[in-house]
Amino acid sequence: MREIPLKEQSIVLIGFMGVGKTTIGQAVAKKLYRDFIDIDEEIERRFGMPPKEIFAKYGEAVFRHHEKEIISEICHKKLKVISLGGGAFLQKEVQDVCLATTTIFFLDLSWNSWKDRISLLIDSRPVLQGKNMEEIKELFDDRQPIYEQHHSRIITDNQEIEEIADYIVDSLKLAWELYAG
């Protein structure tokens, strides 16, 4: 398979659940005139039910398998902005396909900033169900090293969506000039 030129590679946003991958991804896609794909929404569309129901009915293993298949398919497409679910990047195959075919931005939010958002997240995130704050903090800490596989990291604490999206777009344009010229 031919390598996708840097300027045409899809952009993937990774990070813990609730850091803003979808919202920021939509803003980046709009600025770059690209299609935006939220992997969780794509899974929901194909399954006909939200991730929370897939987890409950079929289990996490079935969800992760389909997630991996869909990500592999979409990452080979050009000119997309893709938001991965917080747990998707735990799979080695997902890391490998994303690193090989896309430009990955890690949206890094501190624990203190993240926990301020928990009330907005707790009901819709299957992996948070039945966990106390200590267990959620452990999950947060356990996943941080996995997100270290990226092309660029953005600390998102105390930043507005537009600021982050502009930073991503500006850094992409600089990379395109430097490496694709």
In words, what does this structure look like?
Strands 2-3-1-4-5 form a five-stranded parallel sheet, with helices on both faces. The chain is globular, with a radius of gyration of 16 Å. Helix content is 52%, strand content 13%. The chain has 181 residues and is an alpha/beta fold. The protein starts with 9 loop residues before the first strand and ends with a helix.
Segments where pLDDT lies below 50 for 5+ residues?
Answer: none
Order of helices and strands: EHEHHHEHEHHHEH
Nearest-integer average pLDDT: 89
- Determine the fraction of residues in helical runs and give it as a percent range: 40-55%
Features:
alpha/beta, five-stranded parallel beta sheet, 181 residues
Please sum up the structure shown.
By secondary structure, this protein is an alpha/beta fold.
Secondary structure layout:
Elements: E1 10-14, H1 21-32, E2 35-38, H2 39-47, H3 51-58, H4 60-75, E3 80-83, H5 92-101, E4 102-108, H6 111-115, H7 118-121, H8 133-143, E5 152-155, H9 161-180
Parallel strand pairs: 1-3, 1-4, 2-3, 4-5
